[in-house]
Specification:
Blueprint: E1 9-15, H1 21-32, E2 45-46, E3 61-67, H2 71-81, E4 84-89, H3 94-98, E5 103-105, H4 123-127
Antiparallel strand pairs: 1-3, 1-4, 2-3, 4-5
């Protein structure tokens, strides 16, 4: 993103269905166990597996929080899993974050856009690096 610093906040939502859940668990475990010599250890937060609709996400998912400088690596790792994911910045425009500013890996999912914050507000900013839904 033009104008964003390398430490700008980013999220990734990693989606799975029942058959893909073991792949998602394996990925989450890999991220949780990353050691200091692994660049993935710089991921700031790894959320819980959510096996139900949460916010605008109509299918099971978990989220991770990281800085922009890791976005390329995160995208590469997510592509290797074969799971669908949405990688996006956290700005003050929640709708744009989840649509025009987001990058889909795999087939996009129809998000429930009515669940997103009003322009100028993004509650994900307050949770960045600390908590998921």
């Amino acid at each position: 993103m033009t104008g964003q610093s390398d430490n700008a906040p980013y999220h990734a939502h990693i989606y799975y269905d029942e058959g893909q859940r073991p792949v998602a668990v394996k990925l989450r475990d890999r991220l949780l166990s990353a050691t200091s010599d692994d660049p993935l250890s710089a991921i700031l937060y790894i959320g819980e597996m959510r096996d139900h609709k949460v916010g605008p996400h109509p299918v099971p998912q978990f989220e991770i929080h990281f800085e922009k400088r890791l976005a390329g690596l995160v995208v590469e790792v997510l592509k290797e899993t074969g799971l669908r994911a949405l990688v996006h910045p956290l700005t003050q425009d929640d709708l744009a974050d989840h649509t025009s500013l987001g990058e889909w890996i795999g087939e996009p999912i129809d998000l429930d856009l009515t669940e997103l914050d009003e322009p100028g507000v993004n509650q994900g900013m307050a949770r960045f690096g600390k908590a998921d839904f």
